[in-house]
């Protein structure tokens, strides 16, 4: 269980580093999480019930989320399931969680009055959701993916509304500034 807690901690800290823009720190933390996961691989042979327990699945899901969040925000290639050496359920659920991290990234950018790139990340959120919602396997196989995609749909729609309002506000401010410049001859 300590392995899973450590991997989850490394992954959460990596995601925080990504949001700070510290991609090198994020990569280092992900590397530490990966090392702990590889150390636990021997459990697969000796104790498969522990290896497949919920806490280890959560660790692999969080590890996937950290890796994919870093890749998307740093505009790198998204690692494959074989790159991460995780099972399919952890991979797809980890990717589903990335939608929430992209919402956080967009909202942080909007708070800094940075609108450039926000629509691109919104499009990525849509694409992730669009792919995940087509996965039609029993919940036992996907480890709760349907519940995650339902939750992510709400996150997606709230983000779309927030981004739309911010973009309209930004456009209005630009037009008012342009009008003011014309009016004053500046």
TrEMBL record:
Gene Ontology molecular function terms on file: sequence-specific DNA binding
Name of the protein described by the UniProt record: Haloacid dehalogenase
Lineage of producing organism: unclassified sequences, metagenomes, ecological metagenomes
């Amino acid at each position: 269980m300590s392995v899973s807690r450590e991997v989850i901690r490394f992954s959460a800290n990596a995601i925080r580093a990504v949001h700070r823009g510290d991609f090198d720190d994020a990569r280092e933390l992900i590397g530490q999480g990966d090392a702990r996961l590889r150390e636990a691989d021997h459990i697969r042979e000796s104790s498969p019930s522990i290896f497949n327990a919920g806490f280890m699945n959560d660790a692999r899901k969080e590890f996937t989320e950290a890796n994919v969040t870093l890749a998307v925000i740093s505009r790198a290639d998204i690692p494959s399931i074989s790159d991460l050496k995780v099972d399919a359920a952890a991979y797809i659920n980890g990717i589903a969680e990335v939608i929430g991290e992209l919402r956080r990234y967009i909202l942080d950018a909007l708070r800094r009055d940075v609108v450039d790139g926000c629509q691109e990340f919104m499009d990525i959120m849509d694409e992730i959701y669009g792919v995940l919602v087509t996965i039609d396997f029993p919940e036992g196989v996907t480890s709760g993916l349907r519940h995650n995609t339902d939750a992510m749909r709400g996150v997606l729609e709230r983000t779309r509304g927030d981004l739309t309002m911010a973009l309209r506000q930004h456009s209005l401010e630009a037009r008012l500034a342009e009008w003011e410049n014309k009016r004053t001859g500046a």
